[in-house]
Design brief:
By secondary structure, this protein is of the alpha+beta class. Helices cover 32% and strands 26% of the residues. The chain has nine helices and 16 strands. The chain has a seven-stranded mixed β-sheet. A six-stranded mixed β-sheet has the order 8-9-10-11-12-13, with no helix packed on it. A three-stranded antiparallel β-sheet has the order 14-16-15. A hairpin with a 2-residue loop joins strand 15 and strand 16. Helix 6 packs antiparallel against helix 7. The longest helix has 20 residues. It is globular and about 65 Å long.
């Protein structure tokens, strides 16, 4: 990992993904997301080389590549963890984790995803437009869609940490972008236009001066992938049958229980969105929901 200064006290830890860093003083900093499980020690070493230790965490959402070390920093340094109310509820106890994150046997949650269980010390309410953490005030942009209560943070240097509300230009060939609610996702992406920030940090490999065009590209990609899933529903099909078709068409090869569960949950969300917008209709046969294209 490499620590790169953007503007003033706002930095980025560049690695497999961009993690935001806000420097409070010569010795303390706040992390904006904490990366994948196992990256904690690497983050600590990189920050220590700059004389910094983590005293606070701002978490955009509870996915394993963004909240994988929240509990690690809370335990190791006593870091205060701040997240939105909806996301805080999803990682408060072990059985809340599979509620939205993945289709997984609840008996495996602690084994596979135990690192994600972490209480929030500071909760961002739905009406909050800013949050104070460790004496610093960050603006909040509520962007539910990618996850139930995803938020973006704007540092005191007017740098917007977008999290996963957008894919970077490098990721716009994504097979099936993760979306808890595509309907909400369309609306929240448009909310990011015209913010007037000096810089925008997209978690997966993107730093921009302006993102208005990127917003439209993301909306177009999500729409295209929804339409592609719809075309794979060629007859009345159960959710499992649709899942098999989508995984084969997009090459989604889950090689672990959590990863396969992520794919399954995501495909379900796409199907629900297509049903809600009227592109698919549904009937129940023998207790099984079957979907087909609407006439």
């Amino acid at each position: 990992m490499e620590l790169k200064q953007l503007i003033g006290s706002t930095y980025v830890l560049e690695g497999w993904e961009n993690l935001g860093v806000y420097r409070l003083d010569e010795a303390r900093c706040i992390l904006l997301d904490t990366g994948m499980p196992g990256e904690g020690d690497d983050i600590v070493r990189t920050l220590a080389e700059a004389g910094l230790r983590v005293v606070g965490v701002l978490c955009t959402h509870v996915h394993i590549d963004h909240a994988g070390n929240n509990a690690y920093f809370r335990k190791k340094f006593g870091a205060k963890v701040a997240m939105s109310k909806g996301e805080a509820a999803l990682c408060a106890v072990p059985l809340s984790v599979p509620a939205h994150v993945t289709e997984i046997d609840t008996g495996r949650v602690l084994k596979d995803l135990g690192c994600m269980v972490c209480p929030a010390d500071v909760v961002v309410e739905p009406e909050d437009r800013q949050v104070e953490l460790c004496g610093a005030v960050f603006r909040v942009v509520h962007t539910p869609g990618h996850s139930p209560d995803h938020v973006c943070f704007i540092t005191p240097d007017n740098v917007c940490y977008v999290g996963d509300a957008l894919l970077s230009g490098k990721e716009l060939n994504a097979k099936l972008p993760c979306s808890f609610s595509p309907e909400a996702d369309f609306a929240c992406k448009r909310r990011l236009k015209g913010l007037g920030c000096t810089k925008y940090v997209v978690s997966h490999q993107g730093i921009y001066d302006d993102i208005d065009g990127l917003v439209e590209d993301n909306i177009a990609l999500l729409r295209a992938r929804l339409d592609a899933v719809k075309e794979l529903v060629t007859a009345p099909m159960s959710m499992d049958e649709i899942l098999a078709q989508v995984c084969a068409a997009f090459g989604l090869n889950g090689n672990s229980v959590p990863k396969a569960g992520y794919y399954e949950k995501n495909v379900r969300n796409y199907v629900y969105a297509l049903y809600n917008e009227g592109s698919l209709c549904m009937e129940i046969q023998g207790g099984v929901r079957r979907y087909q294209k609407a006439e």
